Amino acid sequence: MTTEQILAFTVIGIMMAVFIWDRIRYDIVACCALIAAVAVGIVPVDEAFSGFSDDIVIIVGSALVVSAAVARSGIVDIAIKKFFPNLTSVRAQLALLMIVVAVMSAFIKNIGALAIMMPVAFQFSKRTGVSPSKYLMPMAFSALLGGLMTQIGTSPNIVVSQLRADLTGAPFTMFDFTPVGGILTLVGVTFLMFFHWLVPSRTRQNTSLEEAVEIANYTSEATVPPQSNMAGKALAELLKLGDGEVIATAVLRGATRMSPFPDLNLRENDTVILEGRSSAIDRVVSNAKLQLSGKPLKGRGQQVEDLISIEAIISRESPLSGLSARELALSYTRGVNLLAVSRRGQRLSERLRDLTLMAGDVIVLQGNRNALPGVMQDFALLPLAQREVMLGTKRKAFIPLVILAAAMISTALGWAPVAVAFFAAALGMAVFRAIPLTDVYKAVDGPILIMLAALIPVSDTLRTSGASELIADWLGSIASGLPPYAALAMILVTAMAVTPFLNNAATVLVMGPIAASFATALQFRPEAFLMAVAIGAGCDFLTPVGHQCNTLVMGPGGYRFSDYPRLGFPLSVLIVLVSVPTLLWIWPVS
């Protein structure tokens, strides 16, 4: 063993130990490992930051933006309410998410399937009050399992298929992977369904100030217009859209004020005074197609474009204090609408236009993105954590889905690499305003991307130092005296172990020839051994860095590095125990 190989094993070993220790944030650990690798000379200085240009960083960052845009579109709410209105059990919700992700991952890029379904998981989380961490890691693992079922499901399957063609003249076909992959997916998803409790409840580790500040008691009013689907339905049906986070304090019918009984049938032009979080009120308003208070905003006789809604606090110096919206006539004088008001410790039941505003009230104003800052300055309003809210903003429901579908089709047909397709999709979300530019950079999880970029050159030291070939030699000497099932298990376990450091395609390129030569030397058929390499390379359940799907959910799920083996280790053991006899049955070695 050379000095360079010893240093590579040492740096990576210490890094993994600190990751598991879990006292220092993961991006700092990765950066320290990178600097250490550069300092001892196993990572060249001119390649220290090569990870920042790696496709994996681009794919993960772009997928986070795409997922945020899909969530913002509101299409997820519509789909859940339409197809799964009564799905309230966490296990049933998780089963649905995992099955859909696994099936989609068999035919499209698994990170794309995961990005599509992540917003659904967040909505289920809000509905049940369960942490998103309970959903996201099992979904990521299901995406990895689903990719095992077809030749195009994951990169290792494609590489292994080519290796078989080089050895036998015939590659694996599209569905040669399905018998073994289908069994493993069924077993794995079943395990995850019953043992998801191994995942700890986490909150997002890098929660921003704007995410932490949440007003729970906004009062807003919305009218039932002719195009609404709520006319003739009970008030309880309307409030059901808020998943228990919205209440009605009154219903106004002309000059009559009525108590908000759940069985009260709504009529066209009724006005409902709602109370709840702005995001929950927005779900009610958008799904029921209600009309918020305020007038259509026009400038120079034309509809005002690029409308946003923003929260602000009325300061003591504000001229709004002591006046009502009717007296201010904001929509006519300043081109903004008052959409909601929150007053600490009080439940408001007055109409917004009649409510006398006070210093300390938190209000939601709607207006043009460029004009609102001037209005807030003139009225001495303090923006709340510099954030925008969804209430009153126009949704572009199908644009994100069209953009995402275009990206997935492009990758499936080979028109564009995955990194390019997802980067173009993220750019399209911004260009077509499916997500505001400010939210684009909030969606990109900086610590995760820094960790990935720092780890890539560190992990590559196993290859550049020749340590991977050293491992291969050790395997060959050990496997020569083992029976077929033990040799198959050893190849599978080794592929699982090295995948976090070589990435899955590189693992196949290193381990595939070893498995094939071992099978040839012992006069075994190579298919089972090649399949074992593909399964091991496609099943990294132990770390957040071995596959993009694991990395994608790390930030949104608030996971720590040590959380992955809590669920991933027993799943990995199960996969090994099931894979070996299944492979020997379906692909006999003799």
Automatic annotation (TrEMBL):
Ranges for domain RCK C-terminal: 207-290, 297-381
A Pfam family matched in the record: TrkA_C
Bilayer disposition of the protein: Multi-pass membrane protein
Transmembrane domains' residue ranges: 6-21, 28-45, 57-80, 92-122, 177-199, 397-428, 470-495, 501-522, 567-587
Transmembrane as UniProt keyword: yes
Keyword Transmembrane among UniProt keywords: yes
Domain of life: Bacteria
Protein keywords: Membrane, Repeat, Transmembrane, Transmembrane helix, Transport
UniProt feature coiled coil, ranges: none
Localization per Swiss-Prot or TrEMBL: Membrane
PANTHER family the UniProt entry points to: BASIC AMINO ACID ANTIPORTER YFCC-RELATED
Protein name: Di/tricarboxylate transporter
Source organism (scientific name): Pseudorhizobium tarimense
